[in-house]
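Subject: for your reference before the review

Hello V.,

The reviewers asked for a structural picture of the protein, and I figured it would be easier to keep everything in one thread rather than splitting it across files. Below is the amino acid sequence we used in the manuscript, unchanged from the supplementary table.
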Amino acid sequence: MSLFYAPDIRTNPALPEEESAHAVRVLRLQTGDEIRVVDGVGGLFRAVIAQPHPKHCVVEVLDELPATGQRNYRLHLAIAPTKNIDRLEWCIEKATEIGMDEITPFVGQFSERRVVKPERLERIIVSAAKQSLKSRFPVLHPLCPFHELLDCPASQRFIAHCYPGEKPLLQHACHPGGDVLVLIGPEGDFSPDEVQRALACGFQPVSLGTSRLRTETAGVVAVATVQLVNN
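And here is what came back from the structure prediction:
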């Protein structure tokens, strides 16, 4: 069964232009063909094609189905964009498939990339969420400086850095349920000052294992670890 994204489906029973083109030109759906539609904020609907058009495909909503991809926790991943933007895009795709609620790209002292294109990242999130059959999509926050993350509310706040010292594994420090925020630094890691500022604001330092991971790998490992803790 084909899954489509229409954020205004409750008030405007039609697919956006890109989704309409995919439905009509690629899948060649016709009047009466049944589809599933998500709105990205938890709604999942059973619908049929009413007026197939490659730019404005009108649908008829038949009923609302139980939401998919619901979790007993909330996860906010804050990650420094990688110099090679493809790696960040891969991370966001996989983290969305695994399951997260918010993602914030940030600029740290050692960041090599200080610009991202949110429109491209949003498209990746939508595609990955549809692929993994999720009705609620992660919220992409604007790129921000590191210090703005220090005030982000969460009952469990972690910073995964590579400096020596006693650090529990994330799977041992994280507890099931609640809100979780994990900070993942750039290729050059957080600066010592950034680590100290985070600790002073109540963040707990954690390790993601004995291997030194690339930024994008660390992001995926963090999301998968929090999911496993909550399963």
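For the response letter, the relevant points are probably these. Helices lie at 17-26, 85-98, 118-131, 170-173, 192-200, 215-229. The chain has a mean pLDDT of 95.

Happy to draft the paragraph if you're swamped.

O.
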